[in-house]
Design brief:
Helices cover 16% and strands 42% of the residues. It is an alpha+beta fold. The chain folds into two domains: 6-225, Porin (Beta Barrel); 237-354, 60s Ribosomal Protein L30, Chain: A (2-Layer Sandwich). The strands form two sheets. An eight-stranded antiparallel beta barrel has the order 1-4-5-7-8-9-10-11. β13, α4 and β14 form a beta-alpha-beta unit.
């Protein structure tokens, strides 16, 4: 592996041990397109002749199929295509004489296997944006089309020497941001990323070769994760009222992977505080819960943050913390039993029980 990409590969493999568990997993598909800038190609022959091929801004498109693990790592296979005009081809002889031309196109296409790591910023209060980094290895084909032939009368660089359809090893480094569009389409995300892609050269044979090509790309795309749950509906007024009347239990629901209070949640907490004034209970239990879409340890901490948020709002309404028993049960006491990994809106809750 090239020394420029090996350190990033080692970093990705070590990240799960130093970061929080990620509450996302499953199969996904993605596609992106954007602009590609190719670095100037410079090649030298044994007799000292140098050739430089510059490129102009071109197009890049990629499509991928992958699987996201709960620890934040994503593994995917990808097809990609890059193309752009050749800016100029210049040959410099050992005696310093230069000659060149400007025409033709250069394109790359092939497949890559990528490993990426997506960071979870939920602990920082950011749930809609996820940065990610990654590396890829694969096979690429370089194709020169209609390249002109610089000549000075004594030496002629033919288009056959810049041979087309030559395959070689390729690698890339990836960095990007994912913006969740789940409020509109569950599982959909907008991606913005940068890539450094290199297709290595082939060994010259009878003056025919494909030089190494390094590319910088900026892409805008979409990624869709299968099996994502829709946004939970607002709790109905009637069931909440019935719970208050029969059991003095108030249910406060939360969005997926969130611990902040909605307007409806604040209304229910205010009703619980009013009931406490009227009934004078001897014990107020504030119990946090989570669904089963994340790791146990992560859900335990998330359910405690939810319980603390509700307790703080009760305190704001005049309920002393000394009257409250604040506790967290993570995913161990679901209101609706589900399989592991399922996002169930009714299980993302805090129960306020007046005893």
């Amino acid at each position: 592996m090239n020394v420029r990409i090996a350190p990033m590969a080692a970093l990705i493999l070590s990240l799960p041990a130093i970061a929080q568990a990620q509450p996302r997993s499953g199969i996904y598909i993605g596609a992106a397109a954007g602009a590609n800038w190719r670095e100037q190609i410079t090649e030298s022959t044994a007799n000292g002749t140098r050739m430089s091929v510059s490129g102009e801004t071109g197009f890049v498109g990629v499509a991928s199929l992958g699987y996201a693990l709960q620890n934040g790592i994503r593994l995917e296979v990808e097809g990609q295509y890059r193309a752009g005009p050749i800016g100029s081809t210049v040959v410099t002889l050992p005696n310093g004489m230069r000659f060149g031309s400007s025409s033709g196109r250069m394109s790359h296409y092939g497949g890559m296997a990528n490993a990426l790591y997506e960071f979870n910023l939920a602990a920082l209060g950011v749930s809609a944006i996820s940065p990610y980094i990654g590396v890829g290895l694969g096979y690429g084909v370089t194709d020169f089309s209609r390249a002109s032939s610089p000549s000075n009368g004594r030496l002629r660089l033919t288009s056959a020497q810049l041979s087309g359809n030559n395959g070689s090893f390729a690698y890339q480094a990836i960095g990007g941001l994912s913006f969740s569009l789940g409020a509109t389409v569950p599982g959909l995300a907008l991606t913005l990323e940068y890539r450094y892609y290199v297709a290595t050269g082939t060994t010259p044979s009878r003056n025919k070769y494909t030089p190494e090509s390094a590319n910088h790309s900026a892409l805008l795309g979409l990624r869709y994760s299968f099996g994502a749950s829709p946004a939970p509906p607002m709790p109905a007024q009637e069931p909440a009222a019935a719970a208050q009347t029969l059991a003095r239990t108030y249910l406060v629901f939360f969005d997926w992977n969130r611990a902040d209070l909605t307007d409806r949640a604040r209304q229910i907490i205010a009703e619980a505080a009013t009931a406490r004034t009227a009934t004078r209970p001897t014990r107020i239990e504030v119990s946090g819960h989570a669904d089963r879409s994340g790791a146990d340890a992560y859900n335990q901490a998330l359910s405690m943050r939810r319980a603390e948020a509700v307790a703080a709002e009760l305190t704001r309404h005049g309920v002393p913390r000394t009257e409250m028993v604040i506790q967290a049960f993570g995913e161990s006491r679901p209101l609706v039993p589900t399989a592991d990994g399922v996002r169930e809106p009714q299980n993302r809750r805090v129960e306020i029980i007046l005893r």
